[in-house]
Design a protein that fits this description.
103 residues; six-stranded antiparallel β-barrel; two-stranded antiparallel ribbon; 1 helix; 8 strands; globular; GTP binding; Transl_elong_EF1A/Init_IF2_C; GTP-binding; Translation elongation factor EFTu/EF1A C-terminal domain-containing protein; nucleotide-binding
Length: 103
């Protein structure tokens, strides 16, 4: 897998399948769309699971995130910022930034 700079850590609540979330577990490198409130653009979030090999529907996890093509937005990131993750089926998770990595 291509190495990417980590931008932030987040606590993410992956919705259960019944709630419209994941259907199957996902592993490090999983990519989804991420949308922040008051930000017009959405970005691709590459998720890195440091503490586990797989994330299952309904899991709550601490995840490292890399945003693709988000350089102008990165300076706006702050601890406590909330967001939603989605894929082709709709919103699959919500989360909150717990730590922002600089440089």
């Amino acid at each position: 897998m291509e190495k990417h700079l980590l931008h932030f850590k987040a606590q993410i609540n992956y919705f259960s399948t019944e709630r419209g979330g994941l259907i199957t577990p996902v592993s490090t490198g999983y990519r989804s769309e991420i949308k922040f409130p008051f930000e017009l653009n959405s970005y691709i979030a590459i998720q890195n699971f440091a503490d586990t090999d797989l994330i299952f529907p309904g899991d709550l996890a601490s995840v490292n995130i890399t945003l693709m093509n988000a350089e102008p937005f990165l300076e706006k990131l702050y601890k406590g910022m909330d967001f939603q993750l989605s894929d082709n089926s709709g919103i699959i998770a919500d989360g909150i930034v717990t730590e922002v990595y600089k440089g």
